[in-house]
Amino acid sequence: MRRAGGLLLLLALLAAGLWWGRVPLGESVYQRVAASRADRDVLAGGADGLGLIFCGTGTPLPDPDRAEACLLVQAGANLILIDGGDGAVRRLAAKGVRLGGLDAVLLTHLHSDHIEGLAPALLLRWTGSAARTPLPLIGPPGTGRVAAGYNLLLAADASYRTGHHGEAIAPTGGGAFAGRDAGPGVVWNRDGLVISGFAVNHAPVAPAWGYRISYKGRVVVVSGDTAPTAAVASAAKGADLLIHEALQPRLIAGITRGLDGSGQPRTAQITRDILNYHTTPEQAADLAARAGVRELVLTHIAPPLPSRLFHPAFLGDAPARFAGPIRIADDGLRLFLPAGSTAIAADRL
Ligand SMILES: [Zn+2]
Ligand SMILES: [Zn+2]
Q1: What angle do CA 314, 320, 325 make, to 5 degrees?
Q2: Contacts of 240 by beta carbon, 8 Å cutoff, 6+ apart
Q3: pLDDT in tens, 153-192
């Protein structure tokens, strides 16, 4: 009896010791991890070239693995965001991408999945660089209204931030967008980086643009959202890389049947409606072959693919239609096209 009591006392002391020790240990590990994360700056240094980070590769269809549309472009001293759907910009920040140096946001079109996640871009650029001027938001007609809407939405927040952190950290004037409606053609030209918008076919959404991005001889074309169109093939003629949206109707059909069968006819109809203003992987492969690009990257992936096991079903016979590599982008994919080379390097953040 006495021995059992001693054992219990020993166990109680041991548990108390572990409990006592647990807190400082957890705190110490957390502080080390936090310090190394804060020290991370994935955009710093590196060779000269055209860098791309896929911050969002999804669509409005709920997908736990993909944020909505977003691509970050880094070239020389330029840092440009193309589209900013829900969750995408916050995902960049979580991966150690510092956005204080963000120069502008370009929009392909004004669908919600391309514009509804822009508030963090504004805040992170503002407080990351103590910016005193608004962040340029450039895109098709209507972009100025989106900028004005964001500025109205965030006016109170901006005044709170300045009031709380002070002019040295959140200066008046930096917490807003400067919207600019631009026509097709060159929308950005600085330090060797030239970005031109061209009209694609996302009817009834019009205008909707793709972008041709060139830097020191390297060329990348972004389709934006579009049905298959010759405009993409001609903009991508001889480019290094075509980044094309992709939707696989054969997989969408499974979702449509499920929605019909479970009494959700309106959502089912939406899954039918979306078929006519997007591009299948096979059609994107045809366009890549026509343009003669080195590599095809598919993004804006619909429907969600819960595992890589579904990649072959998503691609269909796209690999037979384009001889070059085809990659299905995921959030955190980073590509780098060095200046003066034909290489395309890939890794994941
Ligand atoms: Zn979209
Ligand atoms: Zn769209």
Answers
A1: 75
A2: 218, 219, 220, 293, 294, 295, 337, 342, 344
A3: 999 999 999 999 999 999 999 999 999 999 899 999 999 9
Long-range CB contacts for residues 40-46, cutoff 8 Å, separation at least 24: 40/96, 41/96, 41/98, 42/95, 42/96, 42/97, 42/334, 42/349, 43/74, 43/79, 43/97, 43/98, 43/101, 46/336
| C-beta separation of 173 from 132 below 8 A | yes
Active site residue 113: yes
- CA–centroid distance, residue 256 to ligand 1 (Å): 19
CATH superfamily of 50-113+184-348: Ribonuclease Z/Hydroxyacylglutathione hydrolase-like (3.60.15.10)
Reported as half-sphere exposure (CB side, CA atoms, 13 A), residue 154 has a value of 24
- Distance from Cα 264 to the centre of ligand 2, integer Å: 23
Catalytic residue, candidates 63, 83, 86, 113? 113
- Segment holding 48, helix H or strand E: none
- Give per-residue pLDDT as tens, 114-145: 999 999 999 999 999 999 999 999 999 999 99
- Read off the pTM: 0.92
